[in-house]
């Protein structure tokens, strides 16, 4: 049975990502949010259209909205999409030497 992305589901996903996958949230900010200098990030919310992150860089703290390429159908789709985005970010950031030396 599919689980729609309600505010409770959003909170559960965000709590899980922030506690267990903090490095992934930073990669989302760096790659999809174009904040190359992100040192820390927290997922604030997720909905069918995208996710909101709180991002810390050496210079400032900011928020960024990252839109998904498609509307999420349910919590399982969110899970699959976040994994696919992480794999994409890891692959692209490894290819980009300027990202690893950004400060």
SSE inventory with pairings:
Layout: H1 7-20, H2 22-32, E1 40-46, E2 50-56, E3 61-67, H3 75-95, H4 97-100
Antiparallel strand pairs: 1-2, 2-3
Helix pairs in contact: 2-3
Describe this structure in words.
With 103 residues, the protein is α+β, with helices and mostly antiparallel strands. It has a single domain (7-91), classed as Split barrel-like. It has helices at residues 7-20, 22-32, 75-95, 97-100; strands at 40-46, 50-56, 61-67. The protein has a three-stranded antiparallel β-sheet. A hairpin with a 4-residue loop joins strand 2 (50-56) and strand 3. The N and C termini lie far apart (45 Å). Mean pLDDT is 92; it is low at 98-103.
